[in-house]
Amino acid sequence: MDLLYRDRAGAWHVLDYKTNRIPDEATLRTLQAKYHLQVAAYAEALRGRLPGGAAVASYGLWFVSAGVVARWDARARLVRA
């Protein structure tokens, strides 16, 4: 986990940076699927450990070289890719 932050509304979010070279959309989708379970596990590991017993509201992957953030909500629904 590279970043755990709280937004202005007080919700917690996890973001993991990935520096893979991404030559095309197919590679991006493959890496997104590959790393999804990793960031989901980070969010699960934080369950009940944040102040007040809060849960993570979203978690995501920032593919730095592609400038793309893939984000899932707490129910593991992709909300942005």
Mean pLDDT: 94
User: What's the helix-strand series?
Assistant: EEHEEE
Q: Biggest β-sheet: count, sense, barrel?
A: 5 strands, mixed
Binned strand content: 25-35%
- The DSSP helix count reads 1
Gyration radius from CA atoms, angstroms: 13 Å
Looking across the biggest beta sheet, what order are the strands in? 1-2-3-4-5
Globally, the shape reads elongated
Percent helix, as a range, is: 25-40%
**Structural class estimated from helices and strands:** alpha+beta
Q: Span from first to last CA? A: 19 Å
Query: Regions with pLDDT < 50 over 5+ consecutive residues?
Result: none
By DSSP, the count of extended strands is 5
Give structural notes.
With 81 residues, the chain is an alpha+beta fold. The chain has a domain at 1-25 and 52-81. It has one helix and five strands. The protein has a five-stranded mixed sheet with strand order 1-2-3-4-5, covered by helices on one side. The chain is elongated.
Short description:
This protein is of the alpha+beta class and 81 residues long. It has one helix at 25-45, and strands spanning 3-6, 12-18, 56-63, 68-73, 78-80.
Any descriptors?
81 residues, alpha+beta, five-stranded mixed β-sheet, 1 helix, 5 strands, 35% strand
List the helices and strands and how they pair.
Elements: E1 3-6, E2 12-18, H1 25-45, E3 56-63, E4 68-73, E5 78-80
Parallel strand pairs: 2-3
Antiparallel strand pairs: 1-2, 3-4, 4-5
